[in-house]
């Protein structure tokens, strides 16, 4: 059961905080790669390495390694939960045998092993599982903010863990809806990940003025999506779009050259 009170939208905030910290006390953590992909069947274990670096100039970092859950919202936001909250959580399967606590000197890096052992009882080969691996600073650093007030700085970085079995990959997206909100000058595209793998892709959008034939290419919109996710994507219309009748063509490209989903919609626009 998901307890909504625990839900926290942390990633954007953490990114902003990390930038702020770097400007003041040069305190920060670099963790690579940001996403780790496991392909491991029931009854087996797979281990990968991640590199943790103390990017600070003069502060030793005392770090803890913990686990949590996450999922995307329908708008592609990162939603955070305690470990083992979600039905597709693999947090209980994750082990970090090399270290639960790390001490890093300034500019020092450390490789840590992250393993996933899938229980023999896991009987759905098409189900994917996720978890979040957190690296958190345990020794806050004293600093002063822009207003001159004393503050304590500590940072946290997260690594997304993905697990699937070795069944053949199925990449499939189905566009379910496309609408235009002329008052807000935006379109909304809805699509469903009907495959069995996490997808990274981009939506390319083109407008054609039916009277003049003028084509306008809009900025691309990137997305990530997990199997079963319904994604709602906002596409802004140009501020200087001229009055006229338009055909909008949207193409969802997710890395499969043989399968690019497309949708079209016609609309009248008054600038």
How would you sum up this structure, described in words?
β10 and β11 (150-153) form a beta hairpin. The longest helix is centred in the N-terminal third of the chain and has 14 residues, at 11-24. The chain is built from one helix and 20 strands. It is mostly beta strands and 271 residues long. Strands 2, 4, 5, 7, 9 and 12 form a six-stranded mixed sheet that branches. Strands 15, 16, 17, 19 and 20 form a five-stranded antiparallel sheet that branches. A four-stranded antiparallel sheet has the order 1-3-8-6, with no helix packed on it. The protein has one helix spanning 11-24; strands at residues 29-32, 35-39, 45-54, 61-72, 78-82, 94-95, 101-104, 109-117, 129-137, 141-144, 150-153, 156-164, 173-181, 186-193, 199-209, 215-217, 221-225, 230-236, 244-253, 261-269.
- The tally of helices reads 1
Let me know the average pLDDT: 87
Radius of gyration: 22 Å
Helix content: under 10%
Order of helices and strands: HEEEEEEEEEEEEEEEEEEEE
Q: Span between N and C termini?
A: 48 Å
Q: What proportion strand?
A: over 45%
The quaternary state of the protein chains shown equals: single chain
* SSE class: mainly beta
Q: Give a short account of the largest sheet.
A: 6 strands, mixed
Poorly predicted regions are 1-25
State the gist of this model:
The protein has 271 residues and is mainly beta.
Keywords:
single chain, 271 residues, mainly beta, six-stranded mixed beta sheet, five-stranded antiparallel beta sheet, 1 helix, 20 strands, 51% strand, globular
């Amino acid at each position: 059961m998901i307890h909504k009170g625990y839900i926290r939208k942390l990633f954007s905030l953490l990114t902003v905080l990390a930038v702020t910290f770097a400007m003041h006390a040069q305190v920060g953590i670099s963790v690579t790669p940001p996403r780790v992909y496991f392909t491991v069947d029931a009854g087996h274990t797979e281990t990968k390495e991640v590199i943790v670096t103390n990017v600070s100039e003069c502060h030793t970092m005392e770090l803890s390694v913990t686990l949590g859950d996450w999922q995307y919202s329908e708008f592609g936001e990162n939603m955070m939960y305690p470990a083992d909250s979600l039905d597709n959580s693999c947090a209980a399967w994750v082990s970090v045998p090399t270290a639960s606590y790390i001490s890093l000197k300034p500019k020092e890096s450390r490789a840590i092993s992250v393993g996933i052992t899938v229980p023999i009882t896991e009987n759905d080969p098409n189900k994917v599982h996720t978890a979040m691996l957190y690296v958190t600073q345990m020794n806050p650093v004293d600093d002063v903010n822009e207003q001159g007030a004393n503050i304590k700085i500590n940072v946290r970085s997260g690594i997304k863990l993905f697990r699937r079995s070795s069944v053949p990959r199925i990449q499939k997206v189905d566009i379910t809806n496309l609408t235009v909100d002329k008052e807000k000058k935006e379109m909304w595209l809805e699509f469903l990940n009907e495959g069995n793998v996490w997808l990274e892709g981009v939506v390319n959008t083109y407008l054609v003025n039916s009277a003049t034939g003028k084509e306008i290419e809009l900025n691309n919109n990137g997305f990530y999506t997990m199997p079963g996710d319904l994604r709602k994507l906002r596409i802004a219309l140009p501020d200087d779009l001229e009055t006229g009748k338009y055909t909008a063509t949207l193409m969802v490209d997710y890395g499969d050259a043989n399968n690019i989903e497309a949708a079209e919609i016609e609309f009248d626009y008054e600038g």
